[in-house]
Amino acid sequence: MIQSLRGMNDILSEDYERFEFFISTASTVAKRYGFHYIETPLLEETALFKRSVGESSDIVGKEMYQFTDKGGNDVCLRPEGTAGVVRAFIQHKLDKKGGIHRFYYHGPMFRYERPQKGRLREFHQFGVESFGVASVYEDALMIMMVADILKELGIGYRLKLNSLGDQHCMPAYRDKLVGFIESCGDAICEDCQRRKSTNPIRVLDCKNEKCQSLYTDAPKLINNLCEGCQSDFDTLKSILDQHAIAYEIDTNLVRGLDYYSKTAFEFVSDNIGSQSAIAGGGRYDRLIEFLDGKSTPAVGFALGIERLLELIVMPESVREGYYLGALDEESLPLVLKAAESVRRTQKAVVEYDPKKLQNHLKGADRINARYCAIIGENERANHTIWVKDLVEKSESLIPMSQF
RNA sequence: GUGGAAUUAGCUCAGUCGGUUAGAGCAUCAGGUUGUGGUUCUGAGGGUCGUGGGUUCGAUUCCCAUAUUCCACCCCA
């Protein structure tokens, strides 16, 4: 038997209902905030991700589905959504056009990781990107939008917040931290030794207890922000306070993608296992120019759809449409005809096997139909269709001409 | 990528200290005297016990490999 590739799932029936419900809910919220849909290719030039997400990141370093196509191009299945949207933004010269551009998107992303619950090799994200707004109010808008989406879906969460600083304060802090780490010498774990050069900020949330005890005195980025970053961070906190959005400052929160600066946030759920981040995002003011566009402030976020699916509280399903069946073989053509006209306005499902009324009613019940429409000997003789409303429990004989 | 656990019917799981026809609940299908559902009763179908090797007179059970899923690490959405 041929199976789907490891970490790549089919989404069917009930799961898809949730999936669809999520997409429509999130899209509706995004549109209410003034965002427009954008669709970008699943396949992009490898260089795009190397330059945006960053070569030092795990995503680019070891998780990309990378190959050479028949034309000899070095390409990748997209591991995240922002890079493609930024590429499109620049390619269509919206950076030069100026003004504000707000996009939302959803679709599959690919990362070659070891699968686990909530961690798939093909997974789906819903994301938004906002270009041209430098104000920290836009950062707050992002967080409010995620909060709105999760609220409409009935999902509880904790919000973690941090500021990563900008090109003025981050490099200085990084040097200071690396200096501190070096002062620890060989006392720290192997992972930290490696992180010291790849992503020094990550050592701060090392799980090793010995490392943690050494790091209690480590310099914290939050205490080393420059004036601009500090005041934006303070403003952001006060906006969230005013909107009653609870948050916790997590000075160890580091986004794994190199393009983030200033605001970084993550929504986590305590009910889905160890892969608990359900949404993450932040500001990336420098990315557009890194990709040869005109310097444009930007901020965005992405939600992991599969991680949300089991948390979604679906609205109660209502009975709808028709179930149509025949009591004998001779009635079937008339049933098909009736179904055809019902379908012009409503759902109509036909049972082809003639069977007893009782079994038809069971069948109608099973597919959650509102009406059970049956044709048998009597109906044929009188040119009527017997229809039972499964909610009202009322029944009537309707002339075939009215169908 | 590292360490660990699991894999038996469509689903959730029993079970076999290695020995004839491998069980349950739910689901499916069919009936309960001739046209009334969701919450009844009866019955039936459905499994080469994840896959491939090995040990054995004999393996679903023991051993090895492999695949997948799950847990922790890692990472992130």
What strand line-up does the widest sheet have?
Answer: 1-5-6-11-10-9-7-8
CATH domain fold name of the largest domain: BirA Bifunctional Protein, domain 2
Which shape, going by the Cα principal axes? Answer: elongated
Give a quick account of the main beta sheet: strands, pairing sense, barrel closure: 8 strands, mixed
- Give average pLDDT, whole number: 90
Task: Please write out the topology.
Layout: H1 13-32, E1 36-37, E2 43-45, H2 46-54, H3 58-62, E3 66-68, E4 74-77, H4 82-91, H5 94-97, E5 101-110, E6 122-131, H6 136-153, E7 158-163, H7 170-184, H8 190-198, H9 209-215, H10 227-242, E8 248-249, E9 261-268, E10 277-283, H11 287-290, E11 298-304, H12 305-309, E12 322-326, H13 332-342, E13 348-350, H14 357-366, E14 371-375, H15 377-382, E15 384-389, E16 394-399
Parallel strand pairs: 1-5, 7-8, 12-13, 12-14
Antiparallel strand pairs: 2-4, 3-4, 5-6, 6-11, 7-9, 9-10, 10-11, 14-15, 15-16
This protein binds one RNA strand of 77 nucleotides through helix 3, strand 6, strand 10, strand 11 and helix 12.
